[in-house]
Amino acid sequence: MSERRLILGIDTSCDETSAAVVADGREILSNVVSSQVDIHERFGGIVPELASRKHTEVITRIIDRSLAEAGVALEDLDAVAVTNRPGLMGALLVGVEAAKALAFTQSIPIIPIHHIEGHIYANSMAHDVPFPHLCLTVSGGHTLLVYVREGWEYELLGTTLDDAVGEAYDKVAKLLGLGFPGGPIVDRLAHENTEEPVDFTVPMARTDSYDFSFSGLKTAVRYYIQKCDGEPPVGRIAAGFQHAAVTSLVTKTARAAKERGIRAVTLTGGVAANRRLRHDIEEMGAELGIDTYCPPFDLCTDNGAMIAGVAHHVWDKGIEADLSLSAHASAPLT
């Protein structure tokens, strides 16, 4: 083993092919991401078969680039980490098989990683986050509120009962004819809106549960559009939808932080790039007197660096896989 523990992280869980080299769990030597937005844009969403094919086309080049940018040779690697759950089954298998091939040829361990573990860890690659802390993970496929203990042990406090918040953003954007991915577009239009936002009900605001639900909010947007005479007020709708969605996320996070006596909250996942959500989480922290952490934008979306980073700690727990490793489309975090 080298002086520094060098781990190659691979993530192909959805529509981004990524490989990264990380030293000792925090030092990012490279983080290469190949996006497929142009491929899926015309369909208004991710087409799993097309995603898998594209991963197959580029995975070798992305790994080679990550090694080159890190100035690392294959024989310098101590282990290869790969997202093997959850995600699109075909997409996951591309990354898993690539990791197995590398592990076999280099005689190094494979470290299987839960995709959400990577997202939860992302903030710790840029900040000294204390334990315990509360993590709000928000993306196109996931919405979770997680209590994180020292040693990277997790307690799931709440999750979505239907649509993930990022999925709801994409569906609302599609209803408004705004294109894909919808999250950044809706965020921008909401930010630019100067009129009174449409008043949508904040979902699950009157429950004691930490769970989330965004399907009803999406349906309320659809009904509002249908009732409009002429062109719908896109900016007002975007602002109203975003207000309701973000308020739901932040309110439940604040309540959990108070009830658990938490002194730190992290925000992570693709939707963590949303400017309203970042602002409101930071404002919540200031009001409650707790520290809040948001990752750099390049660590919000799916990436190999967060997979290699958390693998450093997963490996310390003695967790390794052999060449029988497979992928799982769904898997609990805990």
Question: Quick summary of this structure?
Answer:
This protein is of the alpha/beta class and 334 residues long. It is built from ten helices and ten strands. It has helices spanning 37-40, 48-70, 89-106, 115-122, 165-175, 182-192, 215-227, 234-260, 275-288, 304-316, and strands spanning 6-11, 16-23, 27-35, 79-85, 110-114, 133-138, 143-149, 153-159, 264-268, 291-293.
What do these coordinates show?
With 334 residues, this protein is of the alpha/beta class. The chain has 2 domains: 6-120 and 300-316, Nucleotidyltransferase, domain 5; 131-294, ATPase, nucleotide binding domain (Nucleotidyltransferase, domain 5, 2-Layer Sandwich), CATH 3.30.420.40. Helix content is 43%, strand content 19%. It is built from 10 helices and 10 strands. The strands form 2 sheets. The protein has a 5-stranded mixed beta sheet, sandwiched between helices. Strands 8-7-6-9-10 form a 5-stranded mixed beta sheet, with helices on both faces. A hairpin with a 4-residue loop joins strand 6 and strand 7 (143-149). Helix 5 (165-175) crosses helix 6 (182-192) and helix 5 (165-175) packs parallel to helix 7 (215-227). The two termini are 30 Å apart.
Topology:
Layout: E1 6-11, E2 16-23, E3 27-35, H1 37-40, H2 48-70, E4 79-85, H3 89-106, E5 110-114, H4 115-122, E6 133-138, E7 143-149, E8 153-159, H5 165-175, H6 182-192, H7 215-227, H8 234-260, E9 264-268, H9 275-288, E10 291-293, H10 304-316
Helix pairs in contact: 2-3, 4-10, 5-6, 5-7, 5-8, 6-8, 8-9
